[in-house]
Amino acid sequence: IPNGAGVAAKSQKWLPSSLIDGQGLDDGLGIVLLNRPILLEKQYFTTLWNDAKVRVTVDGGTNRWVDFVKGNINGEHLLKPPDLVTGDFDSCNQEAMEYVEQLKCTIVHTPDQNATDFTKSLKVLKSHGYDKQLSRVLALCESSGRLDQIMANINTLYLANGILPGVDVFLRSSNSLSWLLRPGEHSIDIPHRLVNERIWCSLVPIGQGCQCTTDGLKWNLDGSRALQFGSIVSTSNTYATNRVRITTDGPVLWSMGTTPKDM
C-alpha cells in the first residue's frame, strides 16, 4: 500500500457539509487550484478561496485563476491573490505568470517529473510550514475529461498522508466531493439536501480490494463479497439516512454528488 494509504483510522467522523456548501468553514483549510476550468458557482468559489488559510495555484491552474479574475467585474478585488504558485510551469502561460509576479506571489518551481504537479504542491505546502496550520486541503479540479489526470489525482490522495500526515485531502469538482477512507471505521454526516434529493454516492476500491460493510445507504454492503474490480464496486448508490457508517479493512475512495447534475 503506497505511502501510508493503508494506515488504520481508528474511528473517524466526517463533516463534509462546509466543503459542499461553503458555509461554516474552519480556519485550517488550504485550497489548491488545479488546471481545470473553474465551473463552481461563483459565490461558492469566491468564499472558499478567500476564507482559506492558504491559497495555491498549480501550474495551469494559475491560468484558470487569472482568467477568472479578468473575466469578472472588479475581479482583482474579488479574489485574494495566491499565496503560492507552484508547478513545472509547462502549462502556465506567460501572461498568467507575469500577472502573479506583479502580485508578489511566492513562486515555487517544481521540475521533478516523477510526481504530478498536484502531489508536488502538497510537498511545497509542507516545506513552507503550512502542514502545522492546516487540517484540510481541498483540491479544486474536475472529474471528467482527461482520465489519466483523474486517476493521477486519486493517486495523490493515496500519497497525501505520507506528505501531510494528519491533514485530510479532498477532491472537489463542480458536482462532487471525493476523499480516501483509510482502513477502520468511518461516520459521514450527510447534508439533508443530498438525502432529500437522492443524490448519488459511491465506494470504489482503487489498486486493491477490501472488505467493506456499510449502514445508512440505500444499497448497503454486508462484507460478504470483496469490494474490488473484477467483482463488485458500489456506484450510483444513494442515502437511506443522514449518517452513513462504513467499516473497511483497506483504503477505498468515497465520492458524493453535490448537485442533481449528472445524477
From TrEMBL:
The keyword Kinase applies. Pfam families: TPK_B1_binding (PF04265), TPK_catalytic (PF04263). The keyword Transferase applies. One of its GO terms (molecular function) is kinase activity. Keywords: ATP-binding, Kinase, Nucleotide-binding, Transferase. One of its GO terms (biological process) is thiamine diphosphate biosynthetic process. Gene3D superfamilies: Thiamin pyrophosphokinase, catalytic domain (3.40.50.10240), Thiamin pyrophosphokinase, thiamin-binding domain (2.60.120.320). Residues 184-252 form the Thiamin pyrophosphokinase thiamin-binding domain. NCBIfam families: thi_PPkinase. This is Thiamin pyrophosphokinase thiamin-binding domain-containing protein. Signal peptide: none annotated.
